[in-house]
């Protein structure tokens, strides 16, 4: 049994702006300078990263949370990485070390950890960066859940972050296909004592982080932290490219990951039952066997041989595993069940960013229109609407109005909403008869008075910094008609990014699908909303259609995620995934209509390729009604019908390579001397 731990209040004595700010439900939030030992040790390990290391360092020094030390360990770089890092040592939080010899990736990470003094370790790769609210959000989650050994910035369906998964819940979700523990170090924050207790990373290239998370997850809880806190840069020199360069590299990494997964399943302290372990082991063997057979079918015999050898298997075992029906369709395979504890039995779910406006009686309401109208369309939401409303009242930005539009609910939704009516900024509208989901959204927008419109679904909530950050960007980029917080997908763009109409359509039809985000992830300029005509009430994917129509006429501003909490997932049905057949086909119809609109911003050649892609998807989804999702024939057919992305690594490469972090673009970001700050921490 693990010893109960309490939050690290002994080191939380630093003050932020406004005295002693508190985060959600009284959890301390530290923004002050280092007072004694730091709470967080940020670790940047460097090897030949002269192009990117300054950007990584700048992103750390721009953090709104300031009680940290920054340790940079240079692994005998042959370029000017060390000299660039040493320029930042004027800030007393920055400490730069050079190894006597080249240690390698994970040995260098262990070296950095050995120099740390903080309660928490936050790795930031020298070619990546973290957004200014990253540390503040992560530290708050770890302090809220002292039983968590580490935290991951990620989305888990059905889990409202910040939350904690038990060891059993973590293993069920990860082995069930969730991929939670595939996270790289930049997406995590680690409790140093627990990291030291397992002996740090094992130093095996490319797979040490996954083994570390598997080991820690079965001994401690895992904190689930809001996504969108970091940006992962893709380029030709990064370590992960190694995995794809040769058959030996692919087999080495794949085989080691397979072995580690099997060892974790059969460890004495694995939190799963024997039956669950057997089911998941069978599933992993089946999928690994499939990869070996696929290599053989493509005449990559050397790769197949190496895959078998690295996994410690025999060809007979591989063939036997391949012949087993994929475990994803077997009733014997357990699955992770999203949970939704009642508010009274759950730890607080409000983000750690302190609320400046939490009591409406201290807010003066002006007769002039508010800056933003927050709209909560609700139907039978008595279980969650109170939390949603409270999350709006707790916003740091106070110039808002809240309209709750009850769509003739048959439960206590309207009564609960009415209990907040003593706040003069809150209005309740009730429909005499039910309008339907999207028509109810439109009714709220018609009654809005603000320059901006922000929807909040009754089962979601806004973190206290949400409106402040979104409206900061909205005022800064006034040409944007639509502002999107990328909660569900990690965009190629470093936020904030103002997309032209053509860029938005290129990304939607050929790249990552982003504009299918729920309205909770959006802010609309009210004039642009009105010009678009609002949501099509008879279209199941009405938000996605509206967003693409708006993107055709005005730029779209993409900002980071981590601003809103979702209970059911942030995205609508993606048009690259098979969902409800009738809805999927209807989506293809309007996607085709928008593609052939006279004002479509794509070039003729792009429209032609996108049209072929939609035709392939139509044939694929029609075929899937007969073939199903699994089976060799289905996989062969679906590969033939796979849409062309058109804009791959060659298209995105220059952007990833040249993107530079500018702290002046972000609200509340601290400025280092190199970025124009006036003070140096001495």
Structure, explained:
There is one protein chain. With 682 residues, the chain is of the alpha/beta class. It has four domains: 9-238, Spore Coat Polysaccharide Biosynthesis Protein SpsA, Chain A (Alpha-Beta Complex), CATH 3.90.550; 240-329, no CATH class; 360-565, Spore Coat Polysaccharide Biosynthesis Protein SpsA, Chain A (Alpha-Beta Complex), CATH 3.90.550; 581-648. Helix content is 37%, strand content 13%. The strands form four sheets. It has an eight-stranded mixed sheet, with helices on both faces. An eight-stranded mixed sheet has the order 13-12-11-14-18-16-19-17, with helices on both faces. α19 (581-595) runs antiparallel to α20. The longest helix is centred in the middle third of the chain and has 24 residues, at 274-297. The protein is globular and about 70 Å long.
Topology:
Elements: E1 40-46, H1 53-61, E2 68-74, H2 81-86, E3 94-98, H3 105-114, E4 120-123, E5 129-130, H4 134-144, E6 148-153, E7 163-165, H5 167-178, E8 188-191, H6 192-197, H7 208-217, E9 221-225, E10 230-231, H8 247-265, H9 274-297, H10 301-310, H11 315-322, E11 372-378, H12 385-393, E12 400-406, H13 413-418, E13 426-430, H14 437-447, E14 452-455, E15 461-462, H15 466-476, E16 482-485, E17 497-499, H16 501-510, E18 522-525, H17 526-532, H18 542-553, E19 556-559, E20 564-565, H19 581-595, H20 604-627, H21 632-640, H22 649-658
Parallel strand pairs: 1-2, 1-4, 2-3, 6-9, 11-12, 11-14, 12-13, 16-19
Antiparallel strand pairs: 4-8, 5-10, 6-8, 7-9, 14-18, 15-20, 16-18, 17-19
Helix pairs in contact: 7-8, 8-9, 8-10, 9-10, 9-11, 16-18, 19-20, 20-21
